[in-house]
Structures are given as structure tokens and as C-alpha cells.
Recover the amino acids of this structure.
């Protein structure tokens, strides 16, 4: 995965400050910084008004997947979900005397990565050979690496069954800070230009790389559904399924002929203030 540049590091530090702000439940004054009791009192007062603040840490597992399995991909030979960390701060406003229904919004920093190996046939791609880009139809082994570091804003409707369980559903909007989509082909051949074009063969350990990092889309949006189980008064476990409606690639990118949509399950633990 590419190193995050200084601009993105600054954004991450600013987001950390946002999480601290949300955890405090009120703007940090000098007296609040020096008095835990004042902070707890402010949180109790906001709780009586229906406000709830949470800090979550977890993992993402999943990948970028097509809507339907394309015929050009004949067999998935390997899949590595990687270790994808998430950190999220959430504020929820509950309504009514019983606080059954609520609306939540948050800010999440998350990594989405995966690595796959597949046997393909007549798979349209563009390789780099001797410094030149050669587009065509490849048959053989294909190795793909995908990663994306995002700032995500989830907005969900919440329903609380009891003191232990609550569920939610809504939308999320993501901005990609950094990412990559690249890999290599080997043990096969490329038909240059068309399915019957000149054959370029890769055997005896030879391979060719491809790189579509610059063709990744910056913004993604989709649907989120999930739930939370309260283990103790302040600590809880959570799980959320997230599916992006749009393609990871820009709309004018045509090298990969099918769309790929991030589908990830986010799970972990959290602390309720």
C-alpha cells in the first residue's frame, strides 16, 4: 500500500481531534479539560436529552467484487483479505420517552484491502511490457492487489429493542485518501488488441505487470446495515455490512470491462460515553 502523504496525515490528525471532541460530548473548555467530573456531568446532561456518543475500533473483511461473476474469470485460486483496521466516532440522537428510535452520524477512518489470484480466459486488460502499455485479451494466471484508505461518513436510522440490542440501516459516503489497484499476469498469453490478435506468451516464470492506480474513483457511496450488542454498561460489540453502489474505477475507465463494488463486513468493539 502506498505511504500516506503529509496532507493526508494532517487530515488523519484532524479526525483524531474530532473523535476526542465527540467523546467529550461538548466543546472542550479549559475547565472541562481539567475536570473529569465536569465532563461526566455534561455527558449525563446530554444523555437525558437523548444524545449518545460512541468510539469504535474494528476490522474490515471483504473485497471489491463484480455484480455478477464474469465469464472471463474461470477460477479463484487464492484470496487474502488482509488486515484492515477501522476507527470511528459516532453521535446518536434518540427520540421519544423510551428512546426506541434514533438517527446516528459518524466519521470513520478505514482501510479496505484484498489480494486475489485467478485463472482467466479472454480477460481484457492492459499490461506493461518493456515500458510500453499493451492492451488485449489475456488467458492464464492473474494476480490482483487492491487497497483503499477512506474517510467515511455513515448516516443511519437506529432502533433499540432493549438495553442489550439495537439495529441500524442507512447510507454511507466515502472519500478515498489513498489506494492502489495493480498486479501481474503469468503462465499464459495475451492476444494483442483483439481475441485473435498477435499472441504474447508468458512461460517459464516470465510475467508482466499492470497498474490502474490512477484510474480509481475518489468518491463512493452505498448502503450500510448492522447491529450492536451491549456486553457491559459502556462496552459493546458491533457488526456492519457495507456495499458500495458505484464502481471503484472512474466512469471513463474501460480496460476492466465489468464493474467492481466494495463489499465489506466491519466488526469490532466500542466504548459508549
Amino acid at each position: 500500500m502506498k505511504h500516506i502523504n503529509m496532507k493526508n496525515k494532517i487530515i488523519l490528525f484532524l479526525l483524531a481531534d474530532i473523535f476526542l471532541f465527540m467523546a467529550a460530548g461538548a466543546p472542550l473548555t479549559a475547565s472541562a479539560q481539567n475536570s473529569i467530573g465536569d465532563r461526566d456531568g455534561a455527558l449525563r446532561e446530554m444523555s437525558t436529552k437523548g444524545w449518545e456518543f460512541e468510539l469504535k475500533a474494528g476490522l474490515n473483511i471483504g473485497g471489491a467484487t463484480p455484480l455478477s461473476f464474469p465469464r472471463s474469470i474461470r477460477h479463484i485460486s487464492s484470496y487474502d483479505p488482509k488486515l484492515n483496521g477501522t476507527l470511528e466516532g459516532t453521535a446518536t440522537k434518540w427520540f421519544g420517552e423510551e428512546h426506541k428510535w434514533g438517527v446516528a452520524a459518524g466519521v470513520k477512518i478505514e482501510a479496505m484491502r484484498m489480494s486475489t489470484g485467478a485463472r482467466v480466459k479472454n480477460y481484457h486488460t492492459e499490461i506493461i511490457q518493456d515500458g510500453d502499455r499493451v492492451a488485449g485479451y489475456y488467458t492464464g494466471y492473474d494476480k490482483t492487489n487492491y487497497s483503499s484508505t477512506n474517510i467515511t461518513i455513515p448516516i443511519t436510522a437506529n432502533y433499540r429493542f432493549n438495553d442489550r440490542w439495537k439495529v441500524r440501516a442507512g447510507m454511507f459516503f466515502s472519500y478515498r485518501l489513498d489506494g492502489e489497484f495493480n498486479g501481474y499476469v503469468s503462465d499464459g498469453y495475451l492476444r494483442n488488441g483483439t481475441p485473435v490478435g498477435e499472441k504474447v506468451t508468458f512461460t517459464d516464470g516470465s510475467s508482466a505487470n499492470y497498474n490502474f492506480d490512477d484510474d480509481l474513483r475518489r468518491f463512493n457511496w452505498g448502503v450500510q446495515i448492522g447491529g450492536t450488542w451491549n456486553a457491559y454498561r459502556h462496552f459493546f460489540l458491533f457488526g456492519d455490512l457495507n456495499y458500495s453502489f458505484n464502481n471503484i474505477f472512474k466512469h471513463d475507465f474501460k480496460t476492466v470491462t465489468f464493474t467492481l463494488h466494495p463489499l465489506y463486513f466491519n466488526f469490532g468493539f466500542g466504548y459508549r460515553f
Q: What stands out?
A: Strands lie at 51-65, 73-80, 84-95, 101-129, 132-160, 165-192, 199-211, 219-230, 235-244, 261-272.
